[in-house]
Design a protein that fits this description.
Elements (H helix, E strand, L loop, with lengths): L19 E5 L32 H13 L4 E5 L9 H12 L8 E6 L4 H11 L3 E5 L5 H8 L6 H13 L6 E6 L8 H8 L5 E6 L17 H11 L2 E4 L9 E5 L5 E5 L12 E4 L4 E3 L8 E2 L1 H4 L6 H13 L5 H4 L13 H4 L2
The structure holds iron/sulfur cluster (SF4).
The site of iron/sulfur cluster (SF4) has 11 residues, from helix 10.
């Protein structure tokens, strides 16, 4: 087998390198956000994946190792809600070992969480080797937060306490993601911006997307990034700043008065498919090459094959990426026919 460094750049037909692996470690969540896992579709009777269907930690490590060999430089743990996965700290530790394994370039290990369990787990995650954290928070107003999150008892205060705990153990800089849906939480744009000014936390606003098939998405419920920036600029003048990397999804803006940075992620109005370097691994071991994919490539059977041969695993991952042509957001507005069933975001991570 060619060594870990040899194949450090696997390109798709649009010359996009595989750079980011997003691993969904749980299809379950302790919230029912309207834009991701609406309560109507994911209600009491919904059948979630059973434990035997989930990839084990060892299987996840085998996939991650091959993706790093193929050029991945960032691994992000997602869900559903990743902190619901039993023993998540152990997986973080195993992945951190892989990420720090004298690779050619360091591999970043990050997580996206809704923050509800963060206050309890922040220390253990940091000690296990987690490097970066994104926390979802769509409102500070409790009523609006509960309307967006489909929960009648969760509180934004719990999320803020989780963020504070993560900060106190050094999981910084933290990014906070807020999805804005017209008619629900656009009134929270300024309160959120105001709250995180001077905090060192990077607040990013995400345009509401037509992910999956259950969130009832409508274009007129999208609050565009332009509108979000205008609302903030009107009160706190902003200036654009350089992105960190060509494949960064967020457009960065700084407060002119030095109070920090915000970002906007504009999948609907300013598609970034031309630099998309993200591969997604679902909770039950399928590869998805786009957030709006309709089908995946199974790895679980290969992972559980008696041979346990990871050369075949690397070849399947490489060929999946090398045959990838996804650019859904770029083509969204040209599509005349509805796409077949798109995969649900809660199954492959945002
Ligand atoms: S729509 Fe698909 S290809 Fe485009 S940026 Fe999103 S995940 Fe990447």
């Amino acid at each position: 087998m060619r060594d870990l460094h040899e194949m450090a750049s696997c390109l798709d037909p649009l010359q996009r390198p595989l750079r980011d692996l997003r691993i969904s470690v749980s299809d379950r969540c302790n919230l029912r956000c309207a834009y991701c896992m609406p309560g109507e579709a994911f209600g009491r009777g919904f059948v979630f994946l059973q434990h035997a269907e989930l990839l084990s930690f060892e299987e996840i490590i085998r996939v991650a190792r091959q993706c790093i060999a193929l050029g991945a430089r960032k691994i992000r743990l997602t869900g559903g809600e990743p902190l619901l996965r039993h023993g998540i700290e152990r997986l973080v530790e195993m992945l951190a070992g892989l990420c720090n394994n004298d690779n050619e370039k360091p591999v970043e290990l990050a997580m996206t969480s809704n923050g509800l369990l963060l206050a309890k787990k922040a220390r253990a995650l940091k000690d296990a080797g987690l490097m970066r954290l994104n926390v979802s928070l769509d409102a500070l107003n409790e009523t609006i937060f509960q309307r967006m999150s489909g929960s009648n008892n969760a509180s934004p205060q719990t999320v803020l306490e989780g963020i504070a705990a993560a900060e106190s153990v050094g999981l910084t800089p933290i990014k906070v993601n807020a999805v804005i849906k017209r008619g629900v939480n656009e009134s929270e744009i300024l309160p959120l911006a105001r709250h995180f000014r001077h905090s060192g936390i990077i607040l990013r606003f995400i345009e509401y997307m037509d992910v999956g098939t259950t969130n009832g998405w409508r274009l007129d419920e999208v609050v565009t990034s332009r509108e979000i920036l205008a609302r903030i600029d009107n009160e706190y003048p902003l200036m654009p700043i350089e992105s960190h990397a060509p494949n960064e999804v967020a457009e960065r803006w700084a407060f002119q008065d030095g109070a920090g940075e915000i970002g906007v992620i504009s999948s609907v109005t300013q598609a970034f498919c031309h630099t998309c370097s993200r591969l997604r691994l679902s909770t039950d071991g399928k590869l998805y090459t786009c957030l709006f994919a309709t089908e995946g490539t199974d790895l679980r059977a290969l992972l559980r094959a008696p041979s346990g041969d990871d050369t075949a695993l690397r070849q399947r991952i490489a060929s999946t990426w090398q045959n990838r042509s996804d650019r859904y957001s770029q083509l969204r507005h040209e599509m005349t026919e509805a796409l077949p069933e798109k995969i649900e975001m809660s199954y492959i991570g945002g």
